[in-house]
Description:
Blueprint: E1 2-6, E2 26-31, E3 44-46, H1 49-62, H2 78-88, H3 90-98, E4 113-115, E5 121-123
Antiparallel strand pairs: 1-2, 2-3, 4-5
Helix pairs in contact: 2-3
Amino acid sequence: MDMNDWVPSGPPECPDKNRAQSQRLYRMHRFLTGREAGGSGSIKPVYGLTSAILIRVAAIGYAQSPAFEPYAPGQWSKQKRIEHAMRWHPVFRKARWSERIVYPGEEEGFEEWIRTNEGTLLPRSKPTGLLKSIVARSRL
């Protein structure tokens, strides 16, 4: 097993430049998965849930913690990554807004909502006042 810290190069999912995806490190683990035994000789990079499962299974199977740090310095926890996606990813934002759920401080000033052709309720694009009628159901 080998590992490298990796900086994603894709576009950020967040309009806040301080939280841009390109500013976060991820630890990329590389395991010999068995597919390479046929002669290719390469090691497949594995990250995310797959690497977490492989590392956890090995820790349980060998009854000891890994001899390495599984996460990069400053890498967000799984919970923080999920919260970030729920707050900033356009698909999840639209789903939350359709249920009239917003985070505290998010889109402050939206009082009016409009219905799209698909029947989804979304905040108007121009804020008009303080957000009063929508109560956040999140810890963020």
